[in-house]
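hi! just following up on the protien thing from before. the input was this:
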Amino acid sequence: MQNVRGALRALGVEDTVITLEQEVPTAEAAAQALGCTREAIANSLIFELDDEPLLILASGAARVDTKLIAELLGSAKIRRASPEFVLEKTGQRVGGVAPLGHPQPIRTILDKSLAAHPVLWAGAGDHLSMFSTSYQQLLQITGAIELQVR
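and the predicted 3d structure came back as:
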């Protein structure tokens, strides 16, 4: 959570990180705890694309079409990353990965369907923390590429 707070401050963005009373390792759990829909949860999903990390910020209600993403990015090989790979590349555990605050920048894709929600919630680096943001702000702070992910 501290890495995320530091990254937000360094980018000149308001620190909206909140700590919840119980863990929210899934979009469904986060939506219930926050009183929003799964569609407004920006899941941070780490994939391996040609042996490098790829972060896809997808709606909590979306199932990422990896074949489509690989095709759009001109790659033949994309797969869900192992928990060990995720921790190594992000410094965060699966289920608590944030869109920022990683040791090194990670190539990022932002699911265009998230633009339909005025307020988005994203993980803040652990299973208890989330932060609110807008689609445009998330696009700006991550330097993501906008794509349809399904």
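The beta strands are 17-19, 41-49, 52-59, 78-80, 107-111, 120-123, 129-133, 145-147.
The chain has a mean pLDDT of 94.
cheers
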